[in-house]
Amino acid sequence: MIRIAQLSCGAEYSGIQRELERAAEIVGAKMISPEVSLEDVMEVEKRFGVSVPSGDLNLIMARATRLVQNPDLADAVFVATCFRCAEGAIIRGEVRRYIHEHSRLPVLSYSFTERTTAETLLTRMEALVTTARMRGLLARERQTGLTAGIDSGSTTTKAVIMRDNQIIGTGWVPTTEVIKSAEEAFQQALQESGVKREEIQGIGVTGYGRFLVGKHFDARLIQEEITVNSKGAVFLANAQKGPATVIDIGGMDNKAISVQDGVPGSFTMGGICAGASGRFLELTARRLGVNITDLGKLALRGSYKSVPMNSYCIVFGTQSLVNSLSKGARPEDVAMAACHSVAEQVFEQQLQEVEVKQPVIMVGGTSLIEGLPRAMEDLLGIKVIVPNHAQYIGAVGAALLVSGMLEV
Amino acid sequence: MVKVIVYPPTSTILADLVDRMGHTPLVMANEIRKKIDTPSLESPPLNITPEDPKKGLKYAAVDVPSGVRGRMSLIGPMIDEAEAAIIVEDNNCLVGCTGCARTNELTRLLIKIKGIPFIELKYPRDDGEARRFVHEIRMFLEGLK
Amino acid sequence: MRVTKYVITSPESEILPSDIAMHIYGSKRDVHVKETCFGVIINGEKDEIDDLVREIRAMDPNGIFIKDRGFPPGDPRRCRGHRGGGPRPGFFMLECESKMLPMISRALEAESRNAPLPEAAPEKTPVSMERLVEIIKDEFA
Questions:
Q1: Whole-number Å distance between alpha carbons of B82 and B69
Q2: Nearest CA to A214 among C11, B111, A223?
Q3: How far apart (Å, rounded) are the C-alpha atoms in residues C86 and A41?
Q4: All domains of chain B in start order, with CATH
Q5: Which of C75, C94, C119 sits opposite B12 (nearest CB)?
Q6: In a mutagenesis test of the C interface, which of A33, A54, A61 is the best target, namely the one with the most C β-carbons within 10 Å?
Q7: Is the Cβ–Cβ distance between B102 and B68 less than 8 Å?
Q8: For C96, which of A34, A38, A56 is closest by C-beta distance?
Q9: What is the pLDDT, as a whole number, of residue A235?
Q10: Is A335 left (phi over 0), alpha (psi -120 to 50) or beta?
Q11: What's the pLDDT tens digit per position in A370-392?
Q12: 3-state class of A104 per DSSP?
């Protein structure tokens, strides 16, 4: 049983404590509370460096201090405070950083509302538990044998075939019906690699359709995207040792993952705002009458500064773009403005929550829209790496990890 | 007998003083008891469900964190019911029901603007202060009709 | 309606939690009693508990403090054994106020005798700017 230390303020009073516990239970974990004394809470300033008016936040810091002193008390840490609480957000960030720096415990940081359900937490909890439970498997750096990975995403389905640490075949199709698309992508990859289905020694699946697809293919590994993408990213970017930051702007959600030696340390998963997703760029491309694959190159020739964007929203933001076009803005500037808008939203809402350590690796289909990594580079002030096969990140990670399971 | 809300609403000392002087203390424990004794709900530990922060909208807008609104769904009805109040500050031990400073600020504000008699004190630090503390509370409670 | 109350003895009270428990057992009331480090938790029908509270207070009128508790004793929804360890949130407040109880007890006792109120300590005010300048000059003289 994996023990997740719950360091939270407001969960019981938001009516979501049961949801937290249910999510933990589904992924085979249990929420626990580290023991602290009144003195620990009263002296939090002395030990942690700050105290705040809200006692429950001081309690969080006291518990964090205790966990750092006794990391054996838990296997992972869940830090959560109410959405829209400034005091909570500051302390949550600091507690996450503190535990990340002073222990090897994986940390998940989250801000909740009364609408938070076990389902919204599931992928995050699964990743937290996997990181705690499968450190050995995650330390794997080479793919061995002949394996396949399938990434069933909300927008596209990707597949790769790998043999002896090399990608020998890829498949990429838009997601229509989850299983049908997975079959198609897999067939493409098999065809390209010249390998027969029955020769494949193990299949790993990830992405939001992973459970359905995993069952269909009788996959050895069915794993959420956080762990798998981290692994795939550091493998492709050749950054398996040391720190790295992985940014994945997807169709349904965005991930920002702080990785150490290929293992996710802390991470955030953005919500489902279409304005911060590849969908927004798709819409922009359609409005500009260019193919999505050309939008990035177009953006590189433009500047976002001459296009006023009044909203990150996919509806109102698109309106701003259309207005600019009608006033004579250049298509390349509009393309860059769209890329900048997406990057800025991820920068403001997610990258503040993780340690941005170099190298910064951008992955997923959106990373191939060149304007997007460029916009991210401008915002971060550092170089961003987009590795080869960046769009197959999840499938590569799954193929790599499943090969480790074959030897067990 | 007057219904007296005490702040902090989890204080033993204040609940006891109100009770021993013949008034009814309005305290958090009674609200929690109502919650946990509701048989149809199964949302441990406090049986607060996502519906409760919505009830808290009566006391705070939707852009106030859910934890504040959830707590206000417990404390708000006590303030509505109160006929007098004792407010004591300077306690750094407030966690759980009183673990959110924003809720506590809102609680004190709503009590003060309600137009009921109230006194404001600080927790005593020595015998002299304790003596005045108890005396002032006694005088206040005796003066309530 | 069943209610639960904390009965807390001041650390300086001569009455021990076990004395209170013994009193309740001796009274043969249909009341559930649990001893804790601060006192006892009692649970029973409201009328019965109200009567009992009067009796318990009489054991040491200035040294016993009573308040309501939401959960009955040992409720698995709150019990740390069932809830992943860690102290219950209400515990800290109890511990914090418990330290003040001897002062409150002495004050209640003085109040019951109508003893004269001690003078309030004068409020401290910030030092004047002129005085601060003098202090700085002295320090660096």
A1: 19
A2: A223
A3: 13
A4: 3-35+51-143 (3.40.50)
A5: C94
A6: A33
A7: yes
A8: A38
A9: 95
A10: alpha
A11: 999 999 999 999 999 999 999 99
A12: coil
Q: How far apart are CA A185 and CA A261, in angstroms?
A: 30
- Give the pTM: 0.87
CA distance A403 to B22: 74
C-alpha distance from B70 to closest chain A C-alpha (Å): 5
C45 Cβ under 8 Å from any chain B Cβ: no
- CB proximity A32 to C under 8 Å: yes
Tell me the sheet residues that pair with A147. Answer: A162, A202
CA-based nearest residue to A236, from A137, A156, A162: A162
The Cα–Cα gap between A244 and A384 comes to 11
Distance in angstroms (rounded) separating the CA atoms of residues B43 and A12: 9
- Cβ-based neighbour number of residue B109 at 10 Å: 11
**Mean pLDDT score, A210-222:** 95
A1 touches chain C (CB under 8 A): no
Tokens representing residue A21 in the block: 């516990």
Give the span between the Cα atoms of A81 and A90, in whole angstroms: 10
Q: At CA A120, angle to CA A119 and CA A123, rounded to 5? A: 85
Provide the Cα torsion A285, A291, A293, A298; round to 10°: -60
Cis peptide bond prior to B53, omega within 30° of 0 = no
CB-closest option in B8, B29, B138 to C70: B29
Nearest-Cα residue of chain B relative to residue A113: B66
Contact call for residues A262 and A141 (beta carbons, < 8 A): yes
In this complex, how many residue pairs, one in chain A and one in chain B, have their CB atoms less than 8 Å apart? 111
Tell me the C-alpha distance between B145 and A214, whole Å. 72
Residue B63 with chain A: CB contacts under 8 Å:
84
Q: What is the dihedral of CA B27, B29, B34, B40, to 10 degrees?
A: 150
CB contact (8 A) between residue A55 and residue C96: no
**Looking at chain A, which subunits does it touch, using at least 3 CB pairs closer than 8 Å as the criterion?**
B, C
Alpha-carbon distance A21 to nearest alpha carbon in chain C (angstroms): 10
CA angle A363/A368/A371 to nearest 5° reads 110
Task: Report pLDDT digits (tens) over C62-82.
Answer: 999 999 999 988 887 877 777
DSSP, collapsed to helix, strand or coil, labels residue B89 as: strand
Nearest to A56 by CA among A39, A41, A45: A41
User: What's the token pair of residue C70?
Assistant: 């939401």
Q: How many CA atoms lie within 13 A of A309 on its CB side?
A: 25
pLDDT band with cut points at 50, 70 and 90 for residue A119? confident
A38 touches chain C (CB under 8 A): yes
Residue A393 CA to residue A228 CA, distance in Å, equals 8
Q: Give the angle subtended at the CA of B24 by the CAs of B22 and B25, to the nearest 5°.
A: 120
Interface of A with B (CB under 8 A): 9-18, 38, 41-42, 51-59, 81-85, 87-88, 112-115
Q: Is the Cβ pair A11, B67 closer than 8 Å? A: yes
Whether residue B60 contacts residue B13, with contact meaning beta carbons closer than 8 Å, is answered with: no
Nearest CB among C80, C84, C92 relative to A31 is that of C84
